Amino acid sequence: MAQLDDRLLWIGGQYVAAEGEAFFDTVNPATGEVICRVAKASANDVDKAVSAAKIGQAEWAAMSGAERGRVLTRTARLLRQYCDEVARLESLDGGKPIAETPEADVGSAADCLEFFGGQAASLQGEYQPVPGGFFYTRPEPLGICAGIGAWNYPIQIAAWKSAPALAAGNAMIFKPAELTPLTALRLAELFQEAGLPDGVFNVVQGFAETGQAMTGHPQIAKISLTGEVGTGKAVMRAAADTLKSVTLELGGKSPLIVFDDADLDNAVSAAMLGNFYTQGQICTNSTRVFLHESIKEQFIDKLVARVEKMKLGDPLDPDTDVGPLVSADHLQHVLGYLEKGKQEGGRVLVGGDRAEVPGFEKGNFVQPTVFDGLKDDMAIVREEIFGPVLSLLSFSGEKEVLQRANNTEFGLAGGVFTRDVQRAHRVADRIDAGIVWINHYNITPVEMPFGGFKQSGIGKENSRRAFEHYARLKTVYVAQGDVEAPY
Ligand code: NDP
C-alpha cells in the first residue's frame, strides 16, 4: 500500500499523465516500502514538454531580468517557508538524515535561487569602438535547456541547474534520477506559486531512456547532467549529433592531505564530513585521506573514537547521523567494495559490514567504515564507491603525496590541512582538481564556482560563471561611415 498518491509529470504548469499511463515505483530506502507511483515519461512526453517550454520561454525571455529575478527570489522564500515539508520529503525518498536536509538540501537550493534571482538583472554585454564604427555584444538565452539529475542531492541539483538557466531567460526541462523523483515536482509547484509562467520549468520522470529522449531532442539547446562518468560520456556523445552544449558534473576520488602541523581535530571533522555526510554518497568526497606518517596514529585514535559514536537509524529521526543508502542495488555495490577491500588486504578499523537497524530490517544500512593498510593500486583506493567508506593512506613528503594524490583519472576536488600558509597555497596550486579546500572540506557556498577537471566533468555550476554556460553571446557591428567597396 503506497504512502502517497500517484505523482504525474509537470508539463506546461500542470500535472499530466504519461503516455499509456506508464508508472514506476519510488521506494523508501529505510523500509523498502513503496512511497508512491510516479508517471514515466516517453519520448512523446518529452516532446510535449518541449512544446510547452517553447511557449513558456518566449514569454519568459521577453520579461526584464529584474522581473525574472523577482520570481526566483520569491521561489527561494517559498522554499524556506515550506522547508520542513520539503526536507521531510527528501529524507523519505532518498534516505538522507533529516539532520541534513533542511540546510544542505532545501537551504542550498534556496540559496541558489536567491543568488541567481539577484544576478538576473545584471547579465550585460560590452561596447567597444573599432575601425569604422563600434560593436556591442548581447548575451542571449540558449532557449530550452535540459537538466538531468543524480539521486544524491535531488532538490539541490534541480535548483543548481534551473536557477542560472532561468535567470538567463531560458526554459528548463528537468529529469530527476528515477530513485528520487519527488522534490523536483514540489519545486515546480513553488515556482508556479511564485509567478513563473507556465512551461518555463517542466519535470519529466523516468530512466535512462527518458534522458536519452532529451539528449537527442533537436529543439533542446543544452544539457546539464549530474551523474557518473560513463553517463557523462554517453550524454556528450548523444549531444554531439545536434551540437548541444553540455555541462557535466561527474564522479570523483578526491584526496585530503593532512600535514604534520595540521589542527588534527579540524582535520578529523573534515575527513568525517568528507566521507560520511549523506552516507558518503557525495561526488566531491575525500575518499583518499593521506596522513603524514608522524601524525597518523594520533589521527586514527581521534577518528575511530568519533566514527564509533555515529548513530545509524531512521532518517526522519533528528538524532540520526547515518541513514540508509539510496537503494538495494547501491547497497550491494557498496558491500561489494567492502568485501574487495578486505580481500585485497585492507584492515578494517571500524565498521566494514551491513548494519542492522531495529525496526528497519529491510533498510539499506551500511556501517560507516574506515580502512587502513591500503596501497594506492587497490580497487577501493582507485574507484568511486559512493558510500560511507574512508580509505587511509600515509605519506612522508609533499612532492610524493602530490604525485600520488594526482595519480587518478578524476579531478573533482581535494583538500589540504596545514598551518603553513605557503605550503597550503602551494599544495592547492598543485592539486589537479576543480575545487580545493584549505583547512575545510565539502563546503559549497553558492558564490563559489563548482565543477571538476579531467574525467570529473566540464563546466561550472553556481557563481556568476554558471551564467556563461546558459547564455550565447551575439556580436553586433555598427558602421559609422560609408561602405568602401573596391568595385
Ligand atoms: P547516473 O549517471 O546513473 O544517473 C544520472 C542521471 O542520468 C539519472 O537521472 C539517470 O537516469 C540519467 N541517465 C542515465 N543514463 C542516461 C543516458 N544514457 N542519457 C541521459 N540520461 C541518462 O548517476 P547516479 O544517479 O547514480 O548518481 C551518482 C553519480 O553522480 C556518482 O558518480 C557521483 O559522483 C555523481 N555525482 C556528481 C556530482 C558532481 O557535481 N560532480 C554531484 C553528485 C553526484 P535514472 O537514474 O533515472 O535512470
From TrEMBL:
One Gene Ontology term of the molecular function aspect: betaine-aldehyde dehydrogenase (NAD+) activity
Alphabetical list of SUPFAM superfamilies matching this protein: ALDH-like
Aldehyde dehydrogenase domain segment(s): 16-476
Keywords per UniProt: Metal-binding, NAD, Oxidation, Oxidoreductase, Potassium
The protein's Enzyme Commission number: 1.2.1.8
InterPro entries, sorted: Ald_DH/histidinol_DH (IPR016161), Ald_DH_C (IPR016163), Ald_DH_CS_CYS (IPR016160), Ald_DH_CS_GLU (IPR029510), Ald_DH_N (IPR016162), Aldehyde_DH_dom (IPR015590), BADH (IPR011264)
Catalytic center residues: E249
Annotated Pfam families: Aldedh
Claim: Oxidoreductase is one of the keywords in the record: yes
Enzyme class: oxidoreductase
Entry keyword DNA-binding: no
NCBIfam families listed in its UniProt record: BADH (TIGR01804), PRK13252.1 (NF009725)
The family this protein is said to belong to: Belongs to the aldehyde dehydrogenase family.
Name of this protein: Betaine-aldehyde dehydrogenase
Protein's organism: Microbulbifer halophilus
Taxonomic classification: Bacteria, Pseudomonadati, Pseudomonadota, Gammaproteobacteria, Cellvibrionales
Gene name linked to the record: betB
